[in-house]
Amino acid sequence: MLTFPNAKINLGLNITEKRPDGYHNLETIFYPIPVEDALEINILNEGNTKFRLHQAGLEIAGEAENNLVVKAYKLLDAEFNLPPVDIHLFKRIPLGAGLGGGSADGAFMLKLLNEKFGLGLTDEALEDYAAKLGADCAFFIKNRPTYAEGIGNIFSPVTLSLERYQVWLVKPDVFVSTKDAFAKIKPHRPALSLKQVIELPIE
């Protein structure tokens, strides 16, 4: 079974305050864009392992166990005792660019497992599982324009379409760590919320 996790862009990003737990509260608009990875799972009928991960495309550093597709599998396996799976992940979404590629892969893995093995999980249940993988993972369950606040995990739908426009995505050959980027931010509350901004004419 094959699926194509897509990237997202942030239309505006306001870091409003630092929380006691070290995270930051923010407001942003998540908007899905058609830059995609490819993710496939098949039942694994050989060996004694629960999963096998094959990666191609852009290189992903680190151990397989730290990949969000594997974490998503383990999360549902702990509850549903899933069959062993063979996972193929082709990476095309640039890393370290705020495009949410890893989060999308994890969320789409949850949806893929739900469909493949008939788990009957609702979108709301899948969002709860996705939130355990990362703050913005849950966005990719419904995968539509969304106003996000909190640490990027509290969602409100927005009526916004850029279908009549071209989006140019420019990614320099630079990797930016989310943790490092947030460490240098001075939080502030803008005079105009992004919810109000997107109601204005695009011009």
Structure write-up:
The chain has 203 residues and is of the alpha+beta class. It is built from six helices and eight strands; from the N terminus they run βββββαβαααββαα. Strand 5, helix 1 and strand 6 form a beta-alpha-beta unit. The model has no long low-confidence stretch (mean pLDDT 93).
SSE layout and pairing:
Elements: E1 2-3, E2 6-18, E3 24-36, E4 38-43, E5 51-57, H1 68-80, E6 85-91, H2 101-116, H3 123-133, H4 139-142, E7 146-149, E8 154-157, H5 178-183, H6 194-197
Parallel strand pairs: 5-6
Antiparallel strand pairs: 1-4, 2-3, 3-7, 4-6, 7-8
What is the straight-line distance between the termini? Answer: 42 Å
Taking Cα atoms only, what radius of gyration do you get, to the nearest Å? Answer: 18 Å
- Morphology: globular
Number of strands: 8
- Give the helix tally: 6
| Biggest sheet descriptor | 4 strands, mixed
What is the overall pLDDT average? Answer: 93
Q: Biggest sheet, strands in spatial order? A: 1-4-6-5
Give the SSE order as H and E letters.
Answer: EEEEEHEHHHEEHH
Short description:
With about 200 residues, the protein is of the alpha+beta class. It has helices at about 70-80, 100-115, 125-135, 140, 180-185, 195; strands at about 1-5, 5-20, 25-35, 40-45, 50-55, 85-90, 145-150, 155.
